[in-house]
Specification:
Elements lengths: L18 H24 L3 H33 L12 H15 L7 H14 L8 H46 L1
Helix pairs in contact: 1-2, 2-3, 2-5, 3-4, 4-5
Amino acid sequence: MSDGPDAEDPPGDPAQLTAYELWEHTRRAGQRVTAAGERLVAARSARDRVALAPGFLRPVRQLLTLRLVAVARARRRAFPLQVPPAGASGIASLWAEVFWASRARSPDDDSGVLQAADVSIRGLLALEPADLADLDAVRVWWERLEEVEATLDGLDVEAQAAEELHRSVAEEDRQERRGAS
């Protein structure tokens, strides 16, 4: 297995995908992560896990990229820009945009959720196949990925709710103007 593109990779820049294409590629990437993770857990030895690890790490990185493109896109639509948009569609730059924009919206949030996701994303990006030799390490990193996904889900839902609120306020304004004229 190589780290090069394969038939399952989204074409070109994921930021250029339509909403449906992004959803579909994200769904498939999630399926690939699950399948690869199950293969890692089922591997009989540390050596087998190390050999299978690139097939897990590649879709994990693809999934993170796609999820972050979707969350960044939703948050850009829903909230005024408080930080510059990411200049690239790499995981680190997209996460930096989402992280700092979220912190700017809630500077007093001390829940630690964003910080935990930050540590997990950095850790996932730094993983090497040898880091997944131990079955317990595989389980820990898989759980951390699930926690990151839950955080991204929450950020996405927050953006969707804000966007829906903006639409409903705009619709009420239009109706009031029609009634006033």
